[in-house]
Amino acid sequence: MNSNNSPISNQVLSTIKQRSSARAYSTEQLTQSELDIILTAGLMAPTGINRQEIHFTVVKGYNPVLAELDEEKRRLRGQEKQPHNFYYEAPVLIFLSAEDGFKWSKVDSGIAVENMTLAAESLGLGTLIIGCVYDALHGEKQEYFSEKLKMPQGYSFQIALAVGHKTDNKIPHEYDYEKQVTVLE
Ligand SMILES: Cc1cc2nc3c(=O)[nH]c(=O)nc-3n(C[C@H](O)[C@H](O)[C@H](O)COP(=O)(O)O)c2cc1C
């Protein structure tokens, strides 16, 4: 059950409401300006004690490291080659890594990735938040992939974002307000 009866409507609320994960993309690249806007949204996200401990690695979809990562993810999961790779052939991926041992690294990464997601949505672009490569990026090949993805020393992968021009049109997910919300009087 959704509770969409708010009388207030503005650009931010519309963007939040219309966002949905995209799992099909055209080959059209992002412009430099689109990429800058999305990265700036990530950089402007709040972080615990303003630590700014997130690093953003932008990788074009054709970079060979992504095929290696896809293969390692499948190897760890015992999966055959899938019809799509883990980022659904999106033209751009942004990997967020963060300082190990900082209490808020995961929370801050989540906030930053959602800021970027909404920025991309507001530009008419599709996005997919990607966590399925987490084990591959924290496993026996962690050092190899961290080096390839130029993560700073002492940082490790948190979450990734695929961005591009979407060619599917999934509708936003349903939610159960009663189940998920408690209001104490
Ligand atoms: C932390 C996180 C990790 C996710 N990892 C993946 C992933 O690896 N692959 C994928 O296809 N979707 C992934 N998703 C997308 C979720 O499946 C999706 O957000 C959820 O099904 C709700 O759908 P919606 O985004 O369209 O509202 C992830 C989402 C989050 C928040």
What report would you give on this structure?
Helix 2 (32-43) packs antiparallel against helix 4. The chain has helices at 11-18, 32-43, 64-77, 105-122, 134-138, 142-148, 177-180; strands at 54-60, 92-99, 126-130, 155-164. It is built from 7 helices and 4 strands, in the order ααβαβαβααβα. It has one domain (21-180): NADH Oxidase (3-Layer(aba) Sandwich), CATH 3.40.109. The longest helix is centred in the middle third of the chain and has 18 residues, at 105-122. It is α+β, with helices and mostly antiparallel strands and 185 residues long. It has a 4-stranded antiparallel beta sheet with strand order 1-2-4-3. It is globular and about 50 Å long. Residues 20-21, 23, 128-132, 159, 170, 172-173 line the site of flavin mononucleotide.
Give a brief description:
The chain has helices spanning 11-18, 32-43, 64-77, 105-122, 134-138, 142-148, 177-180, and strands at 54-60, 92-99, 126-130, 155-164.
Number of strands: 4
The unique ligands bound to this protein are:
flavin mononucleotide
CATH architecture: 3-Layer(aba) Sandwich
Shape: globular
| Beta-strand content bin | 15-25%
Give the class-level CATH name.
Alpha Beta
Main beta sheet:
4 strands, antiparallel
Order of helices and strands: HHEHEHEHHEH
Stretches where pLDDT falls below 50 for ≥5 residues?
none
Structural class: alpha+beta
> Tally the helices: what do you get?
7
Q: Mean of residue pLDDT?
A: 96
Spatial arrangement of strands, main beta sheet: 1-2-4-3
